[in-house]
């Protein structure tokens, strides 16, 4: 799933490509991908100009000349900026057409991603209030420690819980825990203030690296012109089972935690 660095890469690119453009038409063929209903979505966005592209955690927020729409890419969504006569892309189920022959194609192989029309700022605030604070933005070391103190669940699962901390997914959780030398199963409330602070720094570091490389394209994620990011060439432990740890040479292990593949160095990250 695209995480904060991937969605932020897309946001920055979209900002350059579509801000100031008016949506003149919408094509779609999967009703469940347009909320609240396709007709309401089309009526809400058609003939509106895009005035800004923002992001909260993994959610993209499109500001319109009147109202908003949001887009969640879930596991396999891609947003592609193309010209009308460019060759077709696979799995495209929604197309926003602009006045200048350009279009925004929403490709989604698994159909879990969606776009949702949001009429007012109040309605938008309601959607955003369920997200926790996010690293690189409003999550401070003190607040992070407090969040971890509240639960004995394994630290890795807490990092993935978007209500507590927003923007971290499986790739960056694994790599940040490795950098901070913390075992993924460690109960969150057993971490000391200094471990918690190194973990937050590690998350910020892997996010910055992810941004620098334009995200991780080991699976579905692509940038808005279809290019791959390259953070997958710099994974520390994620997806590296059987490879050796850069720090100590021990083989990286894979376990299942909360149903997700979890990677760590058994020598550097002890319980
Ligand atoms: Zn190691």
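Sequence proposed for the structure above (271 residues):
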């Amino acid at each position: 799933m695209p995480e904060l660095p991937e969605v932020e890469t897309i946001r920055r690119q979209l900002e350059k490509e579509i801000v100031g453009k008016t949506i003149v038409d919408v094509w779609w063929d999967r009703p469940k991908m347009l909320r609240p209903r396709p007709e309401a979505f089309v009526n809400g966005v058609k003939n509106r100009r895009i005035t800004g592209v923002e992001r909260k955690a993994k959610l993209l927020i499109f500001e319109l000349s009147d109202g908003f729409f949001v887009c969640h890419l879930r596991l396999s969504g891609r947003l592609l900026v193309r010209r009308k006569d460019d060759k077709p892309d696979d799995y495209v189920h929604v197309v926003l057409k602009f006045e200048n022959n350009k279009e925004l194609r929403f490709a989604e192989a698994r159909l879990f991603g969606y776009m949702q029309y949001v009429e007012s700022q109040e309605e938008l605030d309601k959607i955003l209030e369920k997200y926790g604070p996010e690293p690189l933005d409003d999550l401070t070391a003190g607040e992070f420690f407090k969040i971890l103190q509240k639960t004995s669940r394994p630290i890795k699962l807490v990092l993935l819980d978007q209500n507590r901390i927003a923007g971290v997914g499986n790739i960056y959780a694994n790599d940040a825990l490795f950098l901070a030398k913390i075992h993924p199963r460690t109960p969150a409330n057993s971490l000391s203030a200094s471990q918690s602070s190194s973990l937050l720094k590690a998350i910020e570091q892997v996010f910055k690296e992810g941004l620098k490389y334009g995200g991780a394209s080991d699976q579905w994620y692509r940038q808005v012109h279809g290019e791959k990011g390259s953070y997958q060439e710099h994974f520390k432990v994620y997806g590296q089972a059987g490879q050796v740890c850069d720090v100590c040479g021990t083989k990286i292990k894979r376990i299942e935690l909360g149903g997700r593949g979890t990677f760590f160095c058994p020598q550097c990250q002890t319980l």
